[in-house]
Amino acid sequence: MPTSVYAQQTGGSPTETTRAIPDGISSFSIPAGPLSETLQAIASISGARIRFDEADVQHVRAPAVSGQTTAQGAVQAAVSASGLTMRSDPDGSIRVFVQQLDSVTVTAKRDEAETGFRASSSATATRGDANLLDVPQSITVLTAKVFETQQATTVEDALRNVAGVIVRPGAQGASGFNIRGFGASTSTLSNGLSDPNSVKTNIAGVERVEVLKGPQALLAGLNALGGTLNIVTKKPTTEPIREVTASYGSHAERTGSIDLAGAINDSKELSYRLILSATRANGSTAGFDGRTQRYGLGEVRWKNADTDVIAGVSLDKSHVPPDRYTVAIRGYIEPSPSTLPGTPGDGVDTDTRSVFYTLQHSFSDALQFTSRMQRNSTDLDLSLWTAQFPISTADLLLNYSGTLNQSQQVTTSGDHYLSYAFKTGPLEQRLVVGVNHSRYTFEQTQYAGPRVTTRFDATTQYPFPALVRSEDTRSYRIYSPQTQRGLYLQDTVKWDKWALVAGLRHNVVDIGPGTNTVYATPSSPASVSVVDKQSFSKNTVNAGLIYSLGWDTSLYASYAEGFSPLFSDLVVCGTNSTSVPTTQSKSKEVGIKSNVEDRFSWSAAVFQIDQVNLLRRNRPLNCNDLIDGQRSRGAELEAAGKLLDGLNLIFNYSYTKIESLSDPTQRPGAQPRSQVSLWSTYDFQSDRLRNLGVAFGISAWDKSLLGTTATALRAPGGARIDTSISYTQPAWSLRLGVKNLADRTLYGYSSTTMFVPIYDKRTFMLTYQRKL
Predict the structure, then answer these.
(1) What CA–CA distance (Å, rounded) separates 96 from 83?
(2) Which of 8, 64, 59 is nearest to 34 (CA)?
(3) How does pLDDT run across 25-48, given as a tens digit for each residue?
(4) d(Cα 716, Cα 429) in Å, to the nearest integer?
(5) Is the bond leading into 2 cis (omega within 30 degrees of zero)?
(6) Judging by beta carbons within 10 Å of its beta carbon (0-12, 13-18, 19+), is residue 523 exposed, middle or buried?
């Protein structure tokens, strides 16, 4: 049994085991695990006296230690990859500590997510750098290394690696995505803070994507009914980074990026990160003009032994053309049209500006303060033709509408909390108390576009007129603000092999006052109506219990809640009140997580999420019935990391069944029940081929409904094979990748037969990376 260790807090001497050092060599067979437990095991086997501060080894993992060696040799093996230093003191004891440089502890290093497929911790789930084994919920972390080897061009493209997540292309340019059957597009986070457009972040600046499954009211507040997504951007490091990347792919798409980082001063307290990227394509699969994107991220960091401050700005400007699509209004999916359903310049233009800071300060080993804020402003300009409804189904004669609108979304959000770690007898606790706030404003101006009628399968190009905005075509404007404030308390209690994580949040939400403006027509003047302010408050809880089966495996069970606002002008049937409770989701989950020698992780989970409190119009009585919503049940299996020397993989499988709790004929979700994906890379280990690498991946999905009823038409399932080959030298690398190798026609997910997305057929990309 490991010797018990009591961590040093402030003052006093370090903790130590109590046995004297014997002469000779001991035999060790200690599996990979937490470093503190490995050091205790070495002391117990060898009789050595080993001293360390618990704060230095917290969240640090040790590799397996085996064979016959001295205690010093075993400790050296245990700390070899930790960044810690080992020293034998004059009294014969062994000391493990953080090496000091001019009284400054420098830890601004490149994140593990930039160097491998596996990430061992999440900075989001418990508002601290928690080991994933210690978090009682399903979390998937996609690393920058996965993006690099897959040659992913967007975060949405990379989300196919996550069990339980589906991305649904939109008929008007903007994609949405679901987590465990619930929409999550409006509850996303950026560096732990509310940002409804974070999924659009340029992938050149993304360090990792954390997908937290199950309701996330404790973190994100409202709307996170099935989960949320947190984009973590790359940070300044003291390690020099000088990388230039250039790629060329299908549709003559060219991308150039530069990534620079390093220390600014000799003490390495100051560091920076600068990332610039630009993309331009000549065309798209659907035949529209190609996408363009320009991105910049600049950050400065000041870090010493007690304080870590990061401040930065980012700019992202892009044009994204519509996806290729078809229709299925005649009872089957039509072939892709040979002509363009619009004008070449159709698409969505996005301009996002962000400024942010993060401050972390340690008052002592036990007490820490974190404050972070950001302001994001996103301008969207949508201009495209949309198929609205059939004029003649038999002839595929459709009505098309020119869709023109401009909108601005501004989000100012912050999160500020104290974290206190302490011991009460055999109990170890970490208490977090804080406040979370956000203000979101949405302003949109809609323009009346022209309408035309033409065959969807026309063999000659229809002359769609250009879409032009003017004061005469401006039809209406919407302005809607939303303010959210949350006060939360979260506690992690550890006892022996058990851990309890529980949280409570009090939410106050104000929506409005807003305005709706209808602009003048030749027969009527402009009119402005005020939308009254509406407010509500909601308490939510979550709790999870973890049991450690050993150093590398844990079982867990959890309960979590989410909520979303619900308002109506009609009374609730059977009452005289328009007041209704919020829509709420309640999740139950059990699972298992495991690490294999600290290089490969896998997890499995089963879950059920019930949605309650929805409104359904009762037309005969002119009131609203309050009904239950949907139930989502499923199972997920995920794995990531290094299986063997040179062999890395990321794998996921999910089964999700969604049913209506109030209407057995309804089939909410419009998504496949089963999905699976695998991506693996292998770097040859022999001397002759050691610079050569290959990669292979497959993504497959079940059939899905093109609608929300049991009798709706189904889109077929599909499978996509991707592959690549790479050649790597110390200073440069070259990778050639092919996606949809079999050149198959593959259909996406949709809830309507008027828009059936079609994924790209075979595409290629050649990427060159150079370290300067």
Answers:
(1) 10
(2) 59
(3) 888 888 888 888 889 889 888 888
(4) 51
(5) no
(6) exposed
Query: Does residue 39 sit in the same domain as residue 172?
Result: no
Residue ending a domain, among 40, 63, 97, is 97
**CA 613 – CA 225 distance, rounded (Å):** 13
3 state DSSP class of 258? strand
Residue type, 147: F
Together in a domain, 216 and 68: no
Residues of the chain by 3-state class (helix, strand, coil), percent to 5: 10, 55, 40
* Phi, psi (deg, nearest 5) at residue 56: -70, -30
Domain boundary among 74, 97, 120: 97
Secondary structure letter of residue 114 according to DSSP: G
Contacts 24+ apart (CB under 8 A), 27-30: 27/67, 27/68, 28/65, 28/66, 28/67, 28/68, 28/69, 28/74, 29/65, 29/66, 30/64, 30/65, 30/66, 30/74
pLDDT one-digit tens code per residue, 460-505:
999 999 998 888 889 999 999 999 999 999 999 999 999 999 999 9
- What range defines the domain where residue 20 resides? 15-97
Contact of 137 with 125, CB cutoff 8 Å: yes
Whole-number average pLDDT of the chain: 90
Does the residue 302 lie in any domain? yes
Give the Cα separation of 728 and 244 in Å (integer): 15
Assess whether 412 and 488 both reside in one domain: yes
Position 291 scores a pLDDT of 95
Q: Of residues 59 and 751, which shows the higher confidence score?
A: 751
Question: Which residue in this structure is represented by tokens 């069970």?
Answer: 557
C-beta atoms surrounding 617 within 10 Å: 12
* Residue 9 in domain: no
Q: Give the chain's domain count.
A: 3
Helices (H) and strands (E) in the chain, counts: 6, 49
CB 410 within 8 A of CB 377: yes
Closest Cα partner for 221 from 244, 196, 240? 196
Same domain? For 248 and 311 the reply is yes
d(CA 557, CA 501): 10
428-462 confidence digits (pLDDT tens): 999 999 999 999 999 999 999 899 999 999 999 99
Compute the Cα dihedral for 206, 142, 144, 373 and give only its sign. Answer: positive
Residue type at 633 in one-letter notation:
R
What does the pLDDT average to over 47-63?
80
Report the distance separating Cα 65 and Cα 41, nearest Å.
10
